[in-house]
Amino acid sequence: MPPALWTVWVLGSVISLPKEGASDQASSLSCDPTGVCDGRSRSLNSIPSGLTAAVKSLDLSSNEITYVSNSDLRRCVNLRTLRLGANEIHTVEEDSFFSLRSLEYLDLSYNRLSYFSSSWFRSLSALKFLNLLGNLYKTLGERSLFSHLPNLRILKVGNSNSFTEIQEKDFAGLTLLEKLEINAPNLQTYAPKSLKSIRNVSHLILHLKQPVLLLEIFVDILSSLEHLELRDTNLNTFHFSKVSISETNTSIKKFTFRNVQITDESLTEVVKLFNYASGGLEVEFDDCTHDGVGDFRTLTLETMKRLRDVETLTIRKLHVPQFFLFHDLSNIYSLTGKVKRITIENSKVFLVPCLLSQHLKSLEYLDLSENLMSEETLKNSACEHAWPFLKTLVLRQNRLKSLEKTGEILLTLKNLTNLDISKNNFHSMPETCQWPGKMKYLNLSSTRIQSLTRCIPQTLEILDISNNNLDSFSLILPKLKELYISRNKLKTLPDASFLPVLLVMRISRNIITTFSKEQLDSFQKLKTLEAGGNSFVCSCDFLSFTQGQQALAHVLIDWPEEYLCDSPSSVRGQRVRDTRLSPSECHRAAVVSAVCCALFLSFLLVGVLCHRFHGLWYMKMMWAWLQAKRKPKKAPRRDICYDAFVSYSERDSYWVENLMVQELEHFRPPFKLCLHKRDFIPGKWIIDNIIDSIEKSHKTIFVLSENFVKSEWCKYELDFSHFRLFDENDDAAILILLEPIEKKAIPQRFCKLRKIMNTKTYLEWPADETQQEGFWVNLRAAIKS
């Protein structure tokens, strides 16, 4: 190859390499027809090329992308969602997002960006969500990043290590945010009024390791914030100091403390923050640690007054290392009179003191899920005059074991309407129970009950008994509107007459095989049915009903995805809506009837033919013939009774009886012949007589004539003689040709005779009387041989 061509080939190869790489990266994206492209976790090191305006959502998170250039996204003018989180991006060119004017969601979290440029966001006026968490920056830059984002509603900034400063201009231009999350565990500087520019923040999440700057931030957001959430903070050293607050109109309604450490003293200080809440206050503690013993004697009268404004208290996963030294909290009982909702989950609560229950006079909702409550402790908690206005009680996953005792204990709660005692181990259900008179909702799911009794209150409107071991439902509940009975062992739908006003039924994941139009129509008020995940037998009637009712999709909320055939095996796993059966499967009764009729007619025809052509007799003859073939080939000598068995046609009987018998039986010494007229045993089957006579005779004489050929009996005698004698290559057969017979005239059914006449010598009856004496001499000699 000439050097010039070599040079062109090498240059072409080098130029084509980037194109091949780009093609490989583009092929790593999976896009659906709506323009949603997924490129997560594909080990991409750059944004794939070839992206067009058809792309509306692009997810490139969890890759190895390091650089975003001006041209990467230039053609994606209709892009609304861009996820670039969890990459290695350290550089974004100034106009990289310039063409993304429709972008609403941008995630740049957990990359290696050490600074942000306001020009990145200059054209993103439609942006609603922006996540900048987990990068390497120390501040948000020298200029305001968000001043061109008037529609931004959710903003997340900061990192766990290097973000140390919040500047006054950082949030300039933002007026309305639904959620603002600031991750600043190592925050060292907070410029006053940095957050004050935001006129309204629905939810502020602060990650602060220490509460040093908490009060300064609190002052700025007091008038604009509705929900303050503090995460991963050690409040053991927190001390509330008087702050100058000029605003009198505060909007804070909720405080959340998540993964926070607190002591008795610091909790007293935290409560002082509640003084600046407006209206009914909601307080939540989630996965917190209380390093104290519940000694709140330092609470001042003014602080205690603010506790009275708490209407909703939520405590989840509270850790109390000194639990067994904890005080009874009786000094704060009087502050609980206005609390309406209390949730204490997974916090090892085994008792609510009776006195505290009696002070909770406004309590309407109480959730004690995943604790240690038993019937004994519940009896103390639900004492007389306890929780007088309680409407909802949740005791899910505690240590309750008796439905009867639980119902009796709760009789003190006159206004209780909703009770959740799911995930307790009741196992059995008594025949009768007592319940509060206003009960409308009862949750008994996952309680291992095996049958239902009249223990279930008749006043119920909603009953949840899912995930148990029930195999039937026969309760009459005249007021029940919603029934949840999934994950049991029911084989059929409940009887509609038991549930006259039922509106909603969820009965999925049972072992129901079918349901009919009549069954559904019997639920006259049913609006919603969830019955997927059952073992449906896809019969023709069931398929015709489900596929022919268009309105069924409005009732079956999980149709058609959850409705799969379990049988027949040929369609197992197919969706009921898509299943088709063959006509033979759909009209099986008709097919079976037709087959039975055909078989009956066949048997009838065979019977008629057998009767007409003596088929039964032929079958018996065949059986005898087969037995004869299985007998020993040669009978013992002592069993020979005759010198010869004579096989002849009835029309030749004169010659046999008047000539042959006279010449042989009256000879000296006489020959003993076996004739069927004379020697067959009366009453014995003729075939057996033939076989026995041949076997007991030394020779078999066949008197051949035209009459012999036409005789069926002669044929049988010839067949039996052939199989018993000629198969042994013996000379036991003697052929007498009474009259000339042409071999061509012998019918094909006399194949044995044709064979014998070709292989055996036979005697011919002479018409000349002078030659007849020689015939008898030869015959006697043949019999004696």
From TrEMBL:
<dbReference type="GO" id="GO:0030670">
    <property type="term" value="C:phagocytic vesicle membrane"/>
</dbReference>
<keyword id="KW-0832">Ubl conjugation</keyword>
<keyword id="KW-0968">Cytoplasmic vesicle</keyword>
<dbReference type="GO" id="GO:0045121">
    <property type="term" value="C:membrane raft"/>
</dbReference>
<dbReference type="GO" id="GO:0071346">
    <property type="term" value="P:cellular response to type II interferon"/>
</dbReference>
<dbReference type="GO" id="GO:0032755">
    <property type="term" value="P:positive regulation of interleukin-6 production"/>
</dbReference>
<dbReference type="GO" id="GO:0006954">
    <property type="term" value="P:inflammatory response"/>
</dbReference>
<dbReference type="GO" id="GO:0038124">
    <property type="term" value="P:toll-like receptor TLR6:TLR2 signaling pathway"/>
</dbReference>
<dbReference type="GO" id="GO:0035325">
    <property type="term" value="F:Toll-like receptor binding"/>
</dbReference>
<dbReference type="GO" id="GO:0071223">
    <property type="term" value="P:cellular response to lipoteichoic acid"/>
</dbReference>
<dbReference type="InterPro" id="IPR000483">
    <property type="entry name" value="Cys-rich_flank_reg_C"/>
</dbReference>
<keyword id="KW-0399">Innate immunity</keyword>
<dbReference type="GO" id="GO:1903974">
    <property type="term" value="P:positive regulation of cellular response to macrophage colony-stimulating factor stimulus"/>
</dbReference>
<dbReference type="InterPro" id="IPR035897">
    <property type="entry name" value="Toll_tir_struct_dom_sf"/>
</dbReference>
<keyword id="KW-1017">Isopeptide bond</keyword>
<feature type="disulfide bond">
    <location>
        <begin position="31"/>
        <end position="37"/>
    </location>
</feature>
<keyword id="KW-0520">NAD</keyword>
<keyword id="KW-0472">Membrane</keyword>
<feature type="transmembrane region" description="Helical">
    <location>
        <begin position="589"/>
        <end position="610"/>
    </location>
</feature>
<dbReference type="GO" id="GO:0071726">
    <property type="term" value="P:cellular response to diacyl bacterial lipopeptide"/>
</dbReference>
<keyword id="KW-0391">Immunity</keyword>
<feature type="signal peptide">
    <location>
        <begin position="1"/>
        <end position="16"/>
    </location>
</feature>
<dbReference type="GO" id="GO:0050830">
    <property type="term" value="P:defense response to Gram-positive bacterium"/>
</dbReference>
<dbReference type="GO" id="GO:0005829">
    <property type="term" value="C:cytosol"/>
</dbReference>
<dbReference type="Pfam" id="PF01582">
    <property type="entry name" value="TIR"/>
</dbReference>
<dbReference type="GO" id="GO:0042497">
    <property type="term" value="F:triacyl lipopeptide binding"/>
</dbReference>
<keyword id="KW-0677">Repeat</keyword>
<dbReference type="GO" id="GO:0032722">
    <property type="term" value="P:positive regulation of chemokine production"/>
</dbReference>
<dbReference type="Pfam" id="PF01463">
    <property type="entry name" value="LRRCT"/>
</dbReference>
<dbReference type="GO" id="GO:0030177">
    <property type="term" value="P:positive regulation of Wnt signaling pathway"/>
</dbReference>
<dbReference type="InterPro" id="IPR017241">
    <property type="entry name" value="Toll-like_receptor"/>
</dbReference>
<dbReference type="GO" id="GO:0005654">
    <property type="term" value="C:nucleoplasm"/>
</dbReference>
<dbReference type="GO" id="GO:0051607">
    <property type="term" value="P:defense response to virus"/>
</dbReference>
<dbReference type="GO" id="GO:0038187">
    <property type="term" value="F:pattern recognition receptor activity"/>
</dbReference>
<dbReference type="GO" id="GO:0042802">
    <property type="term" value="F:identical protein binding"/>
</dbReference>
<dbReference type="GO" id="GO:0071727">
    <property type="term" value="P:cellular response to triacyl bacterial lipopeptide"/>
</dbReference>
<dbReference type="GO" id="GO:0009986">
    <property type="term" value="C:cell surface"/>
</dbReference>
<keyword id="KW-0675">Receptor</keyword>
<keyword id="KW-1015">Disulfide bond</keyword>
<dbReference type="InterPro" id="IPR000157">
    <property type="entry name" value="TIR_dom"/>
</dbReference>
<keyword id="KW-0732">Signal</keyword>
<dbReference type="InterPro" id="IPR032675">
    <property type="entry name" value="LRR_dom_sf"/>
</dbReference>
